[in-house]
Amino acid sequence: MERKETLLKKIFLSTLYLSAFTFGGGYVIVTLMKKQFVDELHWIDEEEMLDLVAIAQSSPGAIAVNGAIVVGYKLAGIAGVLTAVLGTVIPPFLIIAAVSACYQAFRNNQLVAWMLEGMQAGVGAVIASVTFEMASGIAKEKNKISFVIMAVVFAASVIWQINTIYMILACGLLGILLTFWKRRRKQ
Fold first, then answer.
1. What distance in Å separates the CA atoms of residue 36 and residue 20, rounded to the nearest whole number?
2. Minimal CA–CA distance to 65: which of 35, 110, 25, 13?
3. What would the pLDDT profile of 176-186 be if each residue is shown by its tens digit?
4. Where are the domains of the chain?
5. Could you tell me if 53 and 30 are in contact, meaning their C-beta atoms sit under 8 angstroms apart?
6. Counting beta carbons within 10 angstroms of the beta carbon of residue 80, is it exposed (0 to 12), middle (13 to 18) or buried (19 or more)?
């Protein structure tokens, strides 16, 4: 087992790196978190990553911060949470401070506007990639219930335009019921 100081340093540097080089919001950071925490560092497995995303999405606040909280707590308790949150919030804080100081210069710059438009296209591609990757992970598990839930929620959102809050609450309740049902079946 790693020394706690070494682990906290790795948590801080990982979350700092992810936060500093992620443009496009919370869903983009999910892909990078998966690559970093699941594929490279092996701190969590793919199923835990899906749980992390569900928790991060359903909790108030930014997905990046919520995800950092979950990973930090799993790895090093409260010290891990504080370290991960600090690493996650420093880059956006510094970037926003710098941009706000130079806002007038950036405001009407055509080059900056073109760069932001180009970044939007890249963000869309990354979000599509995350969605495909996570959905294929559910399909590979041969967990028919998860696949049906995913399809129903997609249809409820796109076709019937049901409020996302209701779907999150319903899926949370369904998850609790399924967990109790599985535990009872094992007994």
1. 14
2. 25
3. 888 888 888 88
4. 4-108
5. yes
6. buried
